[in-house]
Design the sequence.
RNA sequence: GGCGCAUUGGUGUAGUUGGUUAACACGCAGCCCUCUCAAGGCUGAGACCACGGGUUCGAGUCCCGUAUGCGCUACCA
């Protein structure tokens, strides 16, 4: 058994989108699982639509997801001579021919056919050209295209690891283009030339390529090469079940980074979109760290159905990760968010207090930026007061105007300022004044955080510290 | 239009060779807990397994048809 080699071959005509990312992920997982090699190949044969910027974007997206490659990136645009030579080889062996029909001519034929409700397949005008005619056009310098000559045989089939046997009648396949007049290959030529050349053993790609595969199978045959294994991965759809696109919201993986996804969480979510682990050994488990995901992955678990991208579920994964990932891994992510918001202070570096505060906050934050919005009262003295919270917790009871400054004094008097001592002080004070502890607690919550919602109040008090707590409590009446 | 693929609760999936009340997760509703909001614990609603025919003692699981969705049908990948 030879070494397993897979590839991810994006076309740099856009940023790395979630569908592409998942295809890359499956290839990466399969390579890791089998100890194989993961090749990254940039399919930039369409010069008009490709750009270096997009290539860079794709690489950044993959790196964010932690998908590293063993070989490449190999740019097809650097291999043009190889494709030309291969096209020539096919012409010489009778598997392909030059076509001098212009794009305009063909378009016209297609339109006529459509108007007459016939389907159009290239009519082989140029296959039927006499040798002399073809030769004279060639020497006259007339631009041409190289077309594959589809064999007359009945049908072409291949076995797909996820879809099973797929068989297609050859008469439904037209003599497709291999080389454009500008000497650039089309997709069909470049993929198979490269997949053969790079000794790819498993082609794992989007299901949108199923219909293209028979053409490529024909090319493998023409080159006399053995077929790789094929595994077509179902597509990712938007909530309305149409192909995921901009109007469904973000499609670029980097947009998910910006929303505040933890890369491992997003990757875990993506992995389960169209794939599931063997229930025999993994039951109904859904959370898998990197190692576990690699262990659990196999091509057989890929689903046949297109999957709807469910944002709620993605957020749930994110939250699971934020809640339970090692604090040491979380902190740098939080730091990045705080830096973006200008809330980061040098003394937080290696700070115990900072770690504890993140720990306190993480239980109820789903997205990374929540550390900024919810964490502001802890990391800064400048935070907003929610008017509704002020109304509900501070203004409602006039007695608070006097109680809060007094509570500040009581807390200020607490020697060993911790969860137990602060709670004791507050409850004792409430009892002494004959008010419910809840009244003071909720009022303190809003006075300290500006919000009606927060972690447990004593955790909040300790996190904010004695000095800031007493100050905020004492100044609370200004808002009433 | 032609060709291909698919079709299990709102969503993602499980359901291995056909065999008792179709499972899990997200989401949703309610209860408990409680200083708020979450979390957590408990409970519940929600699928006649797209529809129609077969095959079989018995089908979500096999076969055929229909519908629907998606893909391909380019000198895009």
Sequence:
């Amino acid at each position: 058994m030879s070494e397993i080699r897979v590839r991810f071959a994006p076309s740099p005509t856009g940023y790395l989108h979630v569908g592409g990312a998942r295809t890359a992920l499956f290839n990466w997982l399969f390579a890791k699982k089998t100890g194989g090699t993961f090749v990254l190949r940039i399919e930039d044969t369409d010069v008009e639509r490709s750009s270096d910027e997009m290539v860079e974007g794709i690489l950044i997206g993959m790196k964010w997801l932690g998908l590293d490659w063993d070989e490449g990136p190999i740019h097809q645009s650097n291999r043009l001579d190889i494709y030309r030579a291969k096209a020539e080889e096919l012409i010489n062996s009778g598997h392909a021919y030059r076509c001098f029909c212009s794009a305009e001519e063909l378009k016209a034929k297609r339109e006529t056919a459509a108007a007459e409700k016939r389907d159009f397949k290239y009519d082989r005008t140029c296959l039927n050209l006499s040798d002399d005619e073809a030769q004279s056009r060639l020497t006259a310098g007339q631009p041409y295209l190289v077309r594959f000559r589809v064999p007359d045989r009945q049908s072409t089939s291949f076995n797909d690891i996820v879809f099973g046997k797929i068989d297609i009648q050859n008469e439904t396949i037209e003599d497709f283009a291999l080389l454009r007049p500008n000497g650039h290959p089309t997709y069909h030529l470049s993929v198979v030339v490269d997949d053969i050349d790079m000794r790819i053993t498993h082609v794992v790609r989007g299901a949108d390529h199923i219909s293209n595969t028979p053409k490529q199978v024909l090319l493998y045959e023409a080159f006399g090469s053995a077929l790789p294994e094929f595994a077509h991965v179902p597509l990712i759809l938007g909530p309305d079940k149409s192909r995921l696109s901009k109007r469904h919201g973000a499609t670029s993986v980097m947009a998910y980074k910006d929303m505040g996804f933890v890369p491992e969480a997003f990757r875990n979510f993506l992995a389960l979109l169209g794939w599931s682990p063997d229930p025999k050994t993994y039951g109904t488990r859904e959370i898998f760290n990197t190692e576990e995901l690699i262990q659990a992955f196999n091509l057989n678990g890929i689903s046949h159905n297109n999957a709807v991208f469910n944002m709620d579920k993605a957020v749930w994964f994110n939250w699971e990760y934020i809640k339970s990932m090692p604090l040491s891994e979380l902190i740098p992510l939080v730091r990045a968010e705080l830096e973006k918001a200008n809330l980061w202070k040098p003394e937080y570096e290696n700070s115990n207090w900072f770690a504890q505060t993140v720990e306190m906050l993480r239980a109820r934050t789903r997205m990374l930026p929540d550390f900024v919005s919810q964490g502001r009262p802890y990391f800064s003295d400048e935070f907003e007061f929610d008017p509704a919270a002020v109304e509900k917790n501070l203004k409602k009871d006039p007695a608070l105007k006097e109680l809060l400054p007094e509570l500040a004094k009581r807390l200020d008097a607490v020697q060993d300022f911790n969860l137990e001592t602060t709670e004791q002080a507050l409850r004792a004070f409430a009892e002494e004044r004959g008010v419910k502890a809840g009244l003071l607690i909720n009022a303190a919550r809003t006075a300290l955080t500006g919000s009606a919602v927060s972690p447990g109040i004593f955790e909040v008090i300790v996190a904010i510290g004695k000095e800031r707590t007493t100050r905020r409590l004492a100044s609370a009446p200004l808002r009433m």
